[in-house]
Every structure is written in structure tokens, then in C-alpha cells.
Amino acid sequence: MVDQFTLDKRRVRRSFDRAAATYDRVAVLQREICDRMVERLQYIKYEPQVILDAGCGTGYGSGQLRKHYAKSRVIELDIAPAMLQASRKRQQGWKQLLPFMAAPAQICGDLEALPVRDGSVGMIWSNLALQWCNDLGATFVGLHGALENGGLLMFSTFGPDTLKELRQVFGTLDADAHVNRFVDMHDVGDALMQAGFAEPVMDMETVTLTYGDLAGLMRDLKALGAHNANQGRARGLLGKGTWQRLQQNYEALRRDGKLPATYEVVYGHAWKGEKKPAPGEAQVIKFHR
Question: Cα dist. 78→59, 63, 83, 179 in Å?
Fold first, then answer.
């Protein structure tokens, strides 16, 4: 069903294509979250033969994966061709430092229509890409199908408190969809279970970035490709008066001389078991805060 928060995938692709050249300059949080995910791999005793980096962006994560899993084949998937091109340029640098490291294969495609054969992947890794899916439940079903039995899904995404300040100040101006809708951690866990994943483990943390002014936040979002792609977005640019009111309302949130931008980061991993739980069958989800 299409509502005001349904994402226009063509706009999503265009936004990330345009941001490919600027993404790495501002993706501090994205790299930090990726590094924290990599740290968690030391507690997971598993050596997949094939890893799919689903929503690879400019390739920072796939580089970390290839260092951690030197014997594994890594496949990059992204919706934006320019992001894959930027990753290829990054791999050239990796090749000079680590000549034994094989370059990843690449697929241009959408997480919601995964173009890989069922049961062909040992691990699916996805850092901050699932929030760009319209139907998370159906996406998890597709990821589950792509994994081999005993395979691992490991991901991060954003929760409902992400950009809550921006959502709050826009809400004082109109009822349009200016900020994406993000799924609660518990609903993400339920969707994993419904898709047939076993032993899901979920946790979250809150990260607050600070800015000198609202324009700085908006520039970073644009440079990341995080444009408003909601169907219910207002068409056209903000008028001068609207922008001034938005700035004034955000100023009320200033603390210690800085404007906050909150991100609720949700982490999860789960395994593909031998069978999907029967209707009504109990399965425990481990949540950590």
C-alpha cells in the first residue's frame, strides 16, 4: 500500500548516484557503525564462503569484510551505479596495499528484489541500507531465501528516534513527510522471526551528532544522498520564510552551543535455520539496550 512514507525508489537511486562523489567526506557515522559491526564478528565463529554486502555504498564495508574473511568471496550490491563505481576506485587503493586481496564482484540491484540465486550466499552483511526498503518483512524473506542453510544475516539500520529533532521542527510547519519513517527494533525482530530466521539478536544505541547550524546538517544529509524520497514529500524547494522558521524552531533545541541530530542505531543478526517456525511456534528474540 502506498502512503506518504512510501519511498520513491527512482528518487533514492538518483540521490545516491549524485552523492557518490561526496559520500566519503561526510560518512563519519556510517564508517563508525561499520567498524562496530566488524568488531562483533570476532564473537561469531563462522567462515562463510560467499558474502553479500547488501547496500555496499562506496565499498568501505566490503573492504573491512575482505580483510576479516581473507578466504571468502565478497559480492557488492547497491541500487546506485555510481556508488559501485566509487567502490571500484576504492578497491584500486586496496589492491596497492594488499595485492593478494581479490576485488569483489558487483551487482547493481535493489535489496527488495534481490537478484541472487536462492541458497547461494553464506553471509549477508548490510550496513545502514535496510531503512531504504518499503517492505521490511518481504525484504527479510528475500534475504532468507538467498542464504544457504546455516547462513548468517548481520545488519544495522536506523530506529524511530533517528533525526527526531528535524522531524519535530518540520512538524511545526506542515503535515508533509519530510523525514523517513524508521522501524522500531522490536518490530524488526518480529519481521526476522516471521521471515524464518532463527536465534535473532537485536540491540540498539543512540548517537548524537552536533552542528553549528541547521544548514550544516542539511548539507551533510545531501552529501550522503539521504534526500527526502517519501511519496508524501512537498514538491519544490523550501521558501525563504519557511526556511527561516525552520531554523528558528531548531534553534530552540540548541544545547552547549550546538544543535543536536540524534540517530537511533539498531543492530541485528540472525541465522537461517533448517526450517521456518510453524505458526504459533515460540521463538525467543534477544533484545539488548
Answer: 10, 15, 7, 22
Q: Say if residue 239 is exposed, middle or buried (CB neighbours under 10 Å; 0-12, 13-18, 19+).
A: exposed
Sheet strands (E) in the chain:
50-54, 73-78, 105-108, 121-127, 147-158, 197-211, 259-272, 286-288
- How far apart are the C-alpha atoms of 199 and 273, rounded to whole Å? 9
Q: How many CB atoms lie within 10 A of CB 170?
A: 22
Q: Provide the grid cell at 24.
A: 566519503
Domains and CATH numbers, the chain: 9-160+181-205+265-277 (3.40.50.150)
- Is the distance from CB of 184 to CB of 161 less than 8 angstroms? no
The single-letter DSSP state of residue 230 is B
Tell me the per-residue pLDDT of 221-237, one tens digit each, with 9 for 90 and over.
Answer: 999 988 776 565 555 55
Q: What is the pTM of this model?
A: 0.89
Distances (CA, A) of 174 to 31, 231, 246: 34, 15, 11
Express as a percent the part of the chain with pLDDT over 70. Answer: 83
